[in-house]
Amino acid sequence: MKKNLIMLVLSAAMLIAMAGCGSSGKDVDAQGLADALKTQIAYADDLAPIDLDTAKMFYTFGDAGITEAVFYESSGATAEEIAVIKCATGGDLDKVEAVLKTRVSEQTESYKDYVPAELEKLNAAVVMRKGNCAVLSVSNEPDKARDVINNYGK
C-alpha cells in the first residue's frame, strides 16, 4: 500500500514537471514571428532577409542546435535587425540567447563611431525568448517589439 502511494505521488510529480517543461518549449513559428516583427514595427531602413549561412558571418552559434532561423538585416546605415532562432533544446536556447547579446554588444561597439545615433536603438535592443525561440529586435520601438513577441500566437 505504501509503495503504491509513493509511486502515485512520484508519477504525479513527474507529470507536473513534464507539463511545465512543455509550456516553456512551446513550438513557435519562427518565420511568422519574424514577419510579425517586420510588419508591425516601423523601421527607418529597409530590412532584407538573409539566410542562416550568411548570418553565420555575423553570429557565432558554435554547436547550438538550431532547427530554424529567420533573419532580417538593415542596409548597414542603421543597426536595425530581426533574428528569430528556433532551438532544439533549452540548453541551445541559452547558447543562442548569449550569442544575440554578444551581437548587440558588437554592434554597439561598431556603431559607436560609425553612426552614434544608432546607439539609442542598440541600448534598447530586445533579446528575449518565446517558446522554443530566441529573439532579437533592434528598432525605434522596443516596447512594441516586446508586445509583438509576448502576444504572438495567442
What this model shows, in words?
The chain has six helices and five strands; from the N terminus they run H-H-E-H-E-E-H-H-E-E-H. It has a five-stranded antiparallel β-sheet, with helices on both faces. The protein has one domain (26-151). Helices cover 51% and strands 19% of the residues. The protein is α+β, with helices and mostly antiparallel strands and 154 residues long.
Which range does the strand content fall in? 15-25%
Arithmetic mean of pLDDT: 86
SSE arrangement, N to C: HHEHEEHHEEH
- Counted by DSSP, the helix tally is 6
Helix content: 40-55%
Rounded Rg: 19 Å
Shape: globular
Biggest sheet layout: 5 strands, antiparallel
Q: Spatial order of the strands in the main sheet?
A: 1-2-3-5-4
Residue runs with pLDDT of under 50 for 5 or more positions = 1-24
Strands, count: 5
SS-based class: alpha+beta
Describe this protein with a few key phrases.
154 residues, 5 strands, disordered N terminus
